[in-house]
Write a structure and sequence with these properties.
The chain is an all-alpha fold and 120 residues long. It has one domain. The chain contains 6 helices and no strands. Helix 2 (28-44) packs across helix 5 and helix 5 (63-81) runs antiparallel to helix 6 (84-111). The longest helix has 28 residues, at 84-111. The protein is globular and about 55 Å long.
Length: 120
Amino acid sequence: MQYLHAFITGAIICAFSQILIDKTKLTPARILVCYVVAGVILTACGIYQPIVDWGGAGATVPLLGFGYSLAKGVAKGVAEKGLLGVFTGGVTGAAGGIAAAIVFGFLFALLSRSPDKSSK
């Protein structure tokens, strides 16, 4: 049942993104930034945690989940270090995802071949 919940949650997020792309003049990059900010705001308001509890990876893997990770890291950082936690908590909370993106991006860059640009 967890797989179904994750699929439904991710599908709703993706469908909403597609509607934004089709019905607004927002660029995909702006939509992505809005999703990260929305994840932070929804987490700060206590709205996103129930979605994460129900949807699991369907809620934590998309960019809303990145905002969620940042907000949770900041909350934990503030609880542990006070005001300094505002600046360090977000990076600490999202460090695993950031490190994975860098490592996998590097590996795929090594394994893939870019097209020859001199043939144009």
